[in-house]
């Protein structure tokens, strides 16, 4: 005999079921269609339809077997640059330390993104390298450094990201083989992989990641375990990922399990502030 709660779940309207799916997505960070079907006493086809409708409304990101929360990194760059500045600065400082060890005297491609800009700002004054970028803000920051040769990738600049990702940019990097690629990701999940919000952006990043000897990235915690519409590739495309000091252990462990080297930024201190 079914319990009253089970009967209620079966009889709830699609809107109510979808609201509960979003609540579970918010509390658990991911949902699986098979588990939701058992929970609601519905077919997996019904749940998949719910997930498609939620994704179409911009409320989640469909992945194989279920869904992830949509990454917060979907707004214009000028807005995102104001979010979590202290966290991005600490991440940038850790990335700059990695670049100092891994890429001194080498060629580094720096992707668009506010955290990547923080990394370039944190590079030591005596750093010598060839820096290639599709991000005018990074080019401007690095141009004044005596030891850094700057190569700018051209094309139309996307207003949301601040970077050039179109056909001209793809042609410019076709023969480029950077020693290190500092990839900017909108969303990262050990299972669902690396994703962004633009089709051309995803294609550009895929090409560069395939051509680079080493791919590294810095990811704020709000991007972990989330999705975005366009896949760049599996999470194991990263050789190194820098996370916040207090990033969830399970996310870090999942990345380590697939062979990604995980580094943590310094924790917040009274002098550097805490999360805004």
What does this protein look like?
There is one protein chain. This protein folds into two domains: 65 residues, Arc Repressor Mutant, subunit A (Orthogonal Bundle), CATH 1.10.10.10; 188 residues, Rossmann fold. Helix content is 40%, strand content 18%. The chain is built from eleven helices and 13 strands. The strands form three sheets. The chain has a seven-stranded parallel beta sheet, with helices on both faces. A three-stranded antiparallel beta sheet has the order 1-3-2. The chain is elongated, with a radius of gyration of 21 Å. The termini are far apart. The N terminus and C terminus are likely disordered.
Can you tag this structure with a few keywords?
single chain, 276 residues, alpha/beta, Arc Repressor Mutant, subunit A, Rossmann fold, 2 domains, 7-stranded parallel β-sheet, 3-stranded antiparallel β-sheet, 11 helices, 40% helix, disordered C terminus
Which helices and strands occur, and which strands form pairs?
Elements: H1 4-11, H2 14-28, E1 31-32, H3 33-40, H4 44-56, E2 61-63, E3 66-68, H5 77-80, H6 85-102, E4 107-110, H7 114-121, E5 129-133, H8 136-143, E6 148-152, H9 167-172, E7 180-182, E8 187-189, E9 193-196, H10 199-211, E10 214-219, E11 230-233, E12 240-243, H11 249-257, E13 261-264
Parallel strand pairs: 4-5, 4-7, 5-6, 7-10, 10-12, 12-13
Antiparallel strand pairs: 1-3, 2-3, 8-9, 9-11
Helix pairs in contact: 3-4, 6-7, 7-8
